[in-house]
Write a structure and sequence with these properties.
Helix content is 64%, strand content 3%. It contains four helices and two strands, in the order H-H-H-H-E-E. Strands 1-2 form a two-stranded antiparallel sheet. The longest helix has 28 residues.
Length: 129
């Protein structure tokens, strides 16, 4: 066996081991008949994948959103300077966390980016955690 194949096999086994542990630790149902959200493992994983793809595609919208919000709150000059820099950081953040959600969609966890989609609570600044 080749070394890359062995490494890939270990990574796959590790991913599947930790994904089931994460599901049980969160109290989610794997059958869809109970648990915290009442969703099945497949539904939660699919939702995480979809959220990740959407956040990758709409991450750039954070730039004008943050500039607008900062301008409304603190004035146009502040919004066009600090808001622009903050908007760039939020654009990168939403895109990167979206990519992480796509890569780790087999481990159904709550969304890291709040609001979950850019169009939800458009008048609220994005937070992470």
């Amino acid at each position: 066996m080749s070394k890359p194949f062995i490494i890939f096999s270990w990574l796959t086994v590790t991913l599947f081991f930790f994904s089931s542990q994460a599901v049980m630790a969160q109290g989610y149902s794997t059958t869809g008949s109970g648990g915290r959200t009442g969703q099945s493992y497949i539904a939660m994983s699919g939702e995480k994948l979809a959220t990740g793809v959407v956040n990758i595609a709409t991450g750039i919208v954070e730039l004008p959103k943050t500039v607008i919000l900062t301008s409304q709150r603190d004035g146009a000059p502040y919004g066009l300077t600090v808001g622009l820099i903050t908007g760039i950081m939020h654009s990168v953040g939403r895109t990167v966390f979206g990519a992480l959600d796509v890569v780790t969609f087999l481990i159904p966890t709550p969304p890291t980016v709040r609001p979950k989609y850019i169009w939800e609570n458009f008048d609220k600044e994005t937070t992470y955690g």
